[in-house]
Write a structure and sequence with these properties.
about 260 residues, Rossmann fold, 8-stranded mixed beta sheet, 11 helices, about 40% helix
């Protein structure tokens, strides 16, 4: 099992494809199985793709101690360093997008270009989840990993996508719950996300930045991406129609095309 002992923990990682390094930062309580196989295969045709389980998730260590977004950024930098990667293109989704912001701010020489997906800047700038999203989040607290995964789908995808891709989502579910995140670790992740605030520091991000999200995102509303793009110098903003928090799944081809175009400039 490929792991590296970095920053005091064992981090599980995988490398797919060949080329310039592209590191993907996962979101709240998620393990690498949440990255669609199709997405990784597409990226792997042009890049060396590095994916890993954050501390507290998947096959990485899960210490029961305080987590912060800065700590996740430190873990990420230490892992890349241990892999001999001096700099990489960085893509972060949801909470992983918060980690990516912190990474770009703290380790600017390691961040070639920054891609922020369905995420937010933190602090008082946050546009909160909708009432529907809050209700969904409240409903999953005492559910099994399998039941919770299904219950969260309306917060991640549009109704049309769920209905059209139910069987595919069920196959993906089996991979996602193979290594469930313990409740205590999820709470640690949640606290890290809720206390994150990069809003005032965003103008210091110096690398080219692409911000993307789905217009119908109810979990992290699209206004948050507009705020990010407005605060980061020269940032480009793409809002995908007919998609929600999981826009990288719902609009896979368009997402990959946009990222390839952005990195290739």
């Amino acid at each position: 099992m490929p792991t590296k002992f970095v920053n005091g923990v064992n981090i599980y990682y995988e490398i797919h494809g060949k080329g310039e390094p592209l590191a993907l930062f996962m979101g709240l309580g998620g393990n690498i199985a949440l990255w669609d196989v199709e997405l990784i295969e597409a990226f792997g045709r042009k890049f060396q793709v590095i994916i890993f389980d954050n501390r507290g998730t998947g096959r990485s260590d899960k210490p029961d101690e305080q987590y912060t977004i800065e700590l996740f950024a430190d873990d990420s930098a230490a892992l890349l360093g241990a892999l001999g990667i001096e700099s990489a293109f960085i893509l972060g989704a949801s909470m992983g997008g918060m980690t990516a912001q912190e990474f770009a701010l703290k380790y600017p020489s390691m961040c070639r270009k920054l891609i922020l997906c369905c995420t937010l800047a933190g602090g008082d700038s946050i546009v909160p989840p909708t009432a529907e999203a809050f209700a969904i989040l409240a409903s999953v607290k005492d559910l099994s990993p399998e039941e919770g995964n299904r219950a969260m789908r309306p917060a991640a995808f549009t109704k049309q996508f769920i209905e059209a891709h139910w069987d595919w989502l069920e196959r993906k579910l089996k991979r996602e719950i193979e290594y469930p995140t313990p409740p205590y670790a999820f709470e640690r992740h949640l606290h890290a996300a809720m206390t994150f605030n990069a809003y005032d520091r965003l103008p210091r991000i110096s690398c080219p930045t692409l911000v993307m999200t789905g217009i119908e995102d109810i979990l992290i509303p699209a206004k948050n991406s507009e705020i990010l793009a407005g605060r980061i110098p020269g940032a480009e903003l793409i809002l995908f129609e007919n998609s929600a928090h999981g826009f990288m799944t719902e609009r896979l081809d368009d997402t990959v095309s946009a990222i390839f175009d952005f990195i290739g400039r």
